[in-house]
Every structure is written in structure tokens, then in C-alpha cells.
Amino acid sequence: MALKELAPRIARCPACFGELDFAETITCRGCGASYSREGDTPILLAGGAEAPKLGEWYPGFLDALPRRLRPLAARVAPRLRPTLVYKSQQARTEVERFVASLPIDGVVLNIGSGESDYGPNVVNMDIGPFANVDFVGVAERLPVADGSCDGAILMAVLEHVRDADLTLTEARRILKRSGKLFVDVPFIQGFHASPHDYRRYTEPGLREALERLGFEAEASGVAVGPASAATWIGAEFLALLFSGRSERAYRLLRPLTGWLLWPVKLADAWLDRHPMAYTVASAVWVRAKLAEPEG
Ligand SMILES: [Zn+2]
User: Fold this and answer.
1) Residue 56 pLDDT > 60, yes or no?
2) What separation in Å is there between the alpha carbon of 28 and the centre of ligand 1?
3) How far is the CA of 152 from the centre of ligand 1 (A)?
4) What pTM does this model have?
5) What DSSP string describes 252-291?
6) Topology annotation, domain 6-290
7) Ligand 1 mean position to 14 CA, how many Å?
């Protein structure tokens, strides 16, 4: 995966925020630190810091199976473990509309992008060199220049970082004065470590966190609706209830209860636009701009 042209323009040394030389080795012109690549992807982690280890995201049912069944089960696992959130077309395009609303020649940083890619002007960063990732870094110490981005995206990231306030402060640092931020976080979802799971937000709670840290919320809403919340919580609840307090039985049951309740989530095709959907929404979003400096 070749680096997007825009990526070296905004990338900086995570130790001193100095400019980087992207030659055979990546070297900081400020402090002389050098950074490696994994495949083609620069690993921009300060002072030998390690990104959080990516493990199995869910207490899996695989190791609850007899050993000889595991290789087969691993191959079909994505089909055994259904996705229990349904993001309606309207909610899915919210982030695309955000990117489209920014200057066409601008730069957007997707922090914790996973394998997603929202366009040629979006630079993708994550803690691992996944497909589409332009460089590896951590959200609490972005390897990115001050005031260099027109937009930043935090999709399903704030629940996974150790320090959410520091992550938002870093997002503010890399934005231009006219820059905007799009945040999408879970409210009612089951535990899902990736590799950690630390917190949830209500819609007003997310707006408050942003405003406390120097943003002004412009718009907010439900990202994933209450039917998805009911599906996920219901699947966890039934697996717990019928597993007789056995962890192994829970792990084996959980894919089954997931499939049993799976169709319920489809009600979010229309329910996520209910005016009261935020009361038990699966996820919420906020679009914010930098607050005007006081005085
Ligand atoms: Zn440096």
C-alpha cells in the first residue's frame, strides 16, 4: 500500500514534532530519531513506544471448541459471529457528508481508521499497519503537525483509547483554525475490546466533553439506533442467562443468540430517526468546530 501523497506533508516526528525525511529510512530533522516501516507503512511511535497489542477483539468461542474443530471454525468465524449493529444508509453517509463539506484540496486525518478509506484527501492512521493505513501512530500523541488538517475523524475510537481527553486535545492541536471534527462513539453496546474498551458516551455527554476541550458542537445525532442496541444487549443477556454461569457455555451460546436476535437490528432502517432514539441508541455522533478563542 503506497503512502498517500498528502501523508508525508502532515506527518511529523512523534517525539519532537520535527519534520521527517521519508528516504529509505525515516529520519527526524529535529531530533535525529529514526523510524521503521512495516511493509511500506511508516511506524511513527515515539521513543520505542509500542502501540497497544491487538488481540482477539472478543472473548471468542473458538477456544471453547474441541481442538480439532478450531481450524474449521476459525475459517467460518466471520459468518458464525454476526454483526449486531445496523447502520442505516442515512447514518452511514454522515461521515462522507462531513468529508465532502471540507475544502476539496484540504487534508483530513482519520484517527483509528481501521481499513476504512473516505477518499483521496483523507490520511488514515491506526495503531497497526492495516490495509489503507498511511502511517501507524497513537491517538494520544499524533505524529502530525500542529494546525495542518482541515478535518479529523474519530469513528468508534474514543471508547478504546486510554485517555479520551488527551485524544480530543491532540485532535484539536492538529486542526487548522477553521478545522472540523467528526466523532462517532458507542452509547449502548456490549463490551468489545479492540484491544481495550474503557467507556461509553450519551449524546449530551459527548457534546460536553468536546466543549470542555475547546470545541463547539455544530450538530449531533444517533449514529446507530436502538434496535441495534437491543439486539446486542439481548444477545449478551440470553447467552448469560442460559449458560448456567459457565464461561465455556457462554462462549458457545453467544454466536447462537447473536443469530437468533440478528433480524431485530434491521428495525434501525427507520427507528434510528425516531426523535427519542438517543435514549437507548447504540452509538451517537457529533460534528464540531474549534471554539473561538476568548477575548
Ligand atoms: Zn524528532
Assistant:
1) no
2) 5
3) 23
4) 0.91
5) HHHHHHHHHHGGGGGGHHHHTTSTTGGGG-SEEEEEEEEP
6) Rossmann fold (3.40.50)
7) 7
